[in-house]
Request: fold
Amino acid sequence: MTATWDSATLAPVVLVRGAEAVLAERAVTSLVQQARAVDPAVEVTRLEAAAYASGQLTYLASPSLFGERRLVVAEGAEAMTEAFLVDCLAYIENPADDVWLVLRHGGGTRGKRLLDAMARVGTVVVCEPLRKEAEKADFVRAEFRRARRRIEPEAVHALLDAVGAELRELDAAVRQLLADTTGVVDTATVDRYHGGRVEASGFRVADAAIAGDAAAAVTLARHAMATGTPAVPLVAALAAKLRTLAKVGAMRGRGLSASQVGLAPWQVQRAERELRGWTPEALADAITAVAQADAEVKGASRDPDFAVERAILRVAAARAR
Reply:
């Protein structure tokens, strides 16, 4: 049986497989909690498959003198020793009645015989990286639902813009918002806690410039650079915003879907709103201005701060035409 990280169910043999450590940790934590719900006195033992010595699993799974249940969590199976492979293959053919075995494998082909065997006799919990923005947005919304809290749709996207692509940082940001706030989380709340990050600074500058608000965009950019934000990520945020607008503009009249241009549906909806007031010619001029600024902040100019401001003014002016 195959399950996702948030639907992992305890079984005599469970394989938690995939490269996304955050999701795997969540799955293992859930399995431990389920074991303790069955038996509060369950003995939980963790071992490293990469440092495993022959006979350890047999010893841990041997009948208990007092009959208590046991949970064995084997970490790092992607680097398992040969002894672990041999012992685990033997064990899963006849698992103990009062023992749960959870195997954590971070990816790769090491121990393929064991992985295939565990898939046949046990449960496989899949923990692959969340690569798409839509998947990360779903992760945020699901975390708030589990906590019986609500986050506004725009606040979800503001959080993704602020925190970036790293799931562990996103997870930490969600936990902080859940712990430190009450009620509905909106964009103002996200900005209060995470607005000072480089990513957030860049996207706020880009949003203002795309909207044609040159004064606000320049003010935000100056503040960001004065407080340590480099010029490069500010220009990168402008470029990313314009690429999204260009992709959505290209969708018009061609019957293309969001996935065909590499965007999430919410990104398309947002870009469609932002495209109002933009002509194809103005968008081309803005892209050219940002491309020039990109070269300048990466070494072609002695004054990268000026290059950023000039790009912002050109983008805002193109929108205002």
Notes: The chain is about 60% helix and 10% strand. The first strand starts at residue 2 and ends at 4. The mean pLDDT is 89.
